[in-house]
Amino acid sequence: MATYDDYDGVYFSAQAIRLYHPEVTDRTEIVVVDNHPSGPCAGPLKDLEHLIPGYRYVPYERTQGTAVRDLVFREANAEFVLCMDSHVLFPPGALARLMAYISAHRDSPDLLQGPLLSDNLQVYGTHFDPVWRAAMYGVWAMDTRGLDPEAAPFQIGMQGLGVFACRRSAWPGLNPRLRGFGGEEGYIHEKFRRAGGRTLCLPFLGWVHRFGRPFGPRYGAGVEDRLRNYLLVHDELGLDPGPAIDHFEREFGAERMRPVVDRVLAELRGPFHFFDAIYALSFDPEGGGWESLVRQCRALGIDHRLRRFDRFAVPGRPRLAQALSHRAVVAEAKLLNLGNVLVLEDDVVFSRGIADVLRASLSELAGRSWALLHLDAPGTPPDAPCGHLATARAPGSLRAVAYHQGAYERILAEVPDSPTALARWLETRGDIGQHYAHAFAGAAAMTCPPVATGADALAREARPFDPLPVSA
Q1: Phi, psi at 351, each rounded to 5°
Q2: Which of 140, 229, 251, 261 would bridge with 125, disulfide CB 3.0–4.6 Å?
Q3: How far is Cα 174 from Cα 408, in angstroms, rounded to an integer?
C-alpha cells in the first residue's frame, strides 16, 4: 500500500490482515510506501516494522501523488502483488481465495480486481462505466454476477484502483511524469489490454474502502494536476484528449482550465518531455543555487518535473559527494525502471537557446545507441564539425547530463556505493566524469553547441554563451 499521512488507515488495514487472514501471513509481506516521510505519521509507520512480522516501510517523496503506487511493484519481492489503498479491509477468506486463484494461474497476464462493498457490507459496484463525472473518468456500475462470491470470474473494462493485483512481471508501469491525484483509472486497464491481458472481477475478492474523511484529505487533490494527468496518459496511449478537456472545462470553466491545457500541450511538445524524470541535485538546500535552478526551470516550464535529491554531504570532498549523488540517482532510476533520466546540479546555468538546441539534438539522437548525453561541454570541443549532436571525447562536468537505462547496470557494478570504498576508487580515477569518459567512450554524446555551463565557469567560457533570461 502507498500512504500519505494516514497512520490509522495503515495500522487498521495491516492489523486486520493479521487478525482475520492469518492463513496467508506466512506467505506474504506487507510493503508500505510512505509518500510523506517528513510528515507526522512517518515515525509511527516506521515503528510498525518492529511490531508486525513481514512489514516493510519504504519512504519516498521525490514525487507525490497516487502514481507512487508504481513503487509498490518495484519494491515488492513476490511473484504476485496486491496493491491496496491504505484504508481497505477484506472479508475473512478473501485473501486465501486470491492466493489459491493465483497459484492456479501463475502465468496470468491479467489485472485482478474484486467488487467494492459499501459500508453496509453489500456489493456496491463491480466495475466502472466509462463516463466522465466530477473530474473523474469512470463511475461505479453493477454486474449482477458480482453479487455471488461463488460466481466465476468475469471480464470488466475498468474499475477503481482501491484494490488490484497482478503478476509482478506483468505490471506495465505508470507514466513516471504523473503527479498529484488521479488519472490512472482506465489508463492502466488499457495498458494491460495492449499487453495481451484482461481485467477480471473476482467475485470473492470483496473489499471495503473508507471513503469518509471527517478531517479532510491530508494531501492535495487539485483538479489542475488531475487534468494534466489525463492529458499525459491520453498522449501516451494515442487517445483523443478532447472529451477530457471538454469535461473539465464544463465542470470548472474554460477560463480556469484552458491555461492548464495550453501548459500541458506545450510540455508534451517540448524537448524535456523526452526524459522520464528530471533529477535536481541540491548542493546546499539553503543556498542560492537551488533557487536559481528552480527559476530557470520555471522559465522553461519544467519546474514541476524536478525531483529534488539532496546531495550527499561529504565536507571537503566535492568529487566524492558528486560521485555518491550521481550513483544514487542512477540506482533509483534503475529501481523505478526509468528509460532515461536527466540529472541537473544546482549550479548549472542554461543557455537562452537550450530548448531549440536540445530538441534538435534529441532528433539526431533518435535511433542511435547512447549511454550518456552531456548538455554541458566536456573539457575539449568535438573533434569534427557537428549538427546538434557530437560524440563527447573528454570527461564532462556532469552539471547537466542524461543517463540512458542501458548504462545503469555498468555504473552500479563499477562505481562503489559506500563512501569509504568510493573514496579509494576515486584515488585512481580522478573523478566520476573521467571514469565515464573511459567506460562509455563512443557512447557518450553532447549537444552541439553546449546548452549548459556552471555559474562559476560562466565568466571563463571560451565560446559565446548567452544565459537563459529568468525573472526573479
Answers
A1: -85, 160
A2: 140
A3: 20
Q: Residues 82, 163: contact at Cβ < 8 Å?
A: yes
Specify the pLDDT at position 457.
74
CA distances from 288 to 62, 185, 255, 298, 323 (A): 20, 40, 35, 15, 22
Structure confidence at residue 464 (pLDDT):
72
Arithmetic mean of pLDDT, 312-326 = 89
Checking if the pLDDT of 384 tops 70, the result is: no
- pTM assigned to the model: 0.92
Output phi, psi for 177, to 5 deg. -85, -10
Cα separation, 166 vs 111, whole angstroms: 5
The edge-to-edge listing of strands for the beta sheet with 163-167 is 80-84, 163-167, 111-113, 199-201, 154-156
Query: What is the rounded average pLDDT for all residues in the chain?
Result: 93
Closest listed residue to residue 229, CA positions, set 127, 158, 304, 129: 304
Per residue in 402-421, pLDDT (tens digit) is 999 999 999 999 999 999 99
- What HEC string does the chain produce? CEECCCHHHHHHHHHHHHHHCHHHHCCCCEEEEECCCCCCCHHHHHHHHHCCCCEEEEECCCCCEHHHHHHHHHHCCCCEEEEEECCEECCCCHHHHHHHHHHHCCCCCCEEECCEECCCCCEEECEEEEEEECCEEEEEECCHHHHCCCCCCEEECCCCCCEEEEEHHHCCCCCCCCCECCCCCCHHHHHHHHCCCCEEECCCCCEEECCCCCCCCCCCCCHHHHHHHHHHHHHHHCCCCHHHHHHHHHHHCHHHHHHHHHHHHHHHHCHHHHCCEEEEEECCCCCHHHHHHHHHHHHCCCHHHEEEEECCCCCCCHHHHHHHHHHHHHHHHHHCCCCEEEEEECCEEEECCHHHHHHHHHHHHCCCCCCEEECECCCCCCCCCCCCEEECCCCCCCCEEEEEHHHHHHHHHHCCCCHHHHHHHHHCCCCHHHHHHHHCCCCEEEECCCCEEECCCHHHCCCCCCECCCCC
Percent residues over pLDDT 90 in the chain:
81
